[in-house]
Amino acid sequence: MDQQRAQEMASDAVDKAGKAAGDAASQATAAMQSTLEQGRSMAQDVARQASEVGRQAMGRASEVIQGVAPQAGEQAKQVAGNLYDQGSRAGEYLRQYVAEQPIAALLIAGAIGYAFAYMIHRG
Fold first, then answer.
1. How far apart are alpha carbons 38 and 44 in whole angstroms?
2. Residues 97, 40: contact at Cβ < 8 Å?
3. Which uninterrupted H or E stretch holds 22?
4. Where are the domains of the chain?
5. Each residue of 50-61: pLDDT tens digit?
């Protein structure tokens, strides 16, 4: 009887340990999903902000060029349009990359932020 009781206790312990491990894995998976979603959201926000800054800079550059050299206004508009198109394509590529590789995008964004902070504090 003692051996059977020991086997039952061992079986119960294994079942409990398995359930605890499964619960811990589920919690870890949920936490990782949440972190990935936050990272993806942050990277997409950065991409949107970069795109908006590019649009604003293009608009201002076009205004300045038109004011300085009215004859070159058409050429400046064409160049600014090309620049805007390239920026839009780059923004779309960035959004797609972030959606496909959120962890890598988050690490790259962190490295860029660190580099900027280093340059600012160094100077």
1. 10
2. no
3. helix 2-68
4. 2-122
5. 777 777 777 777
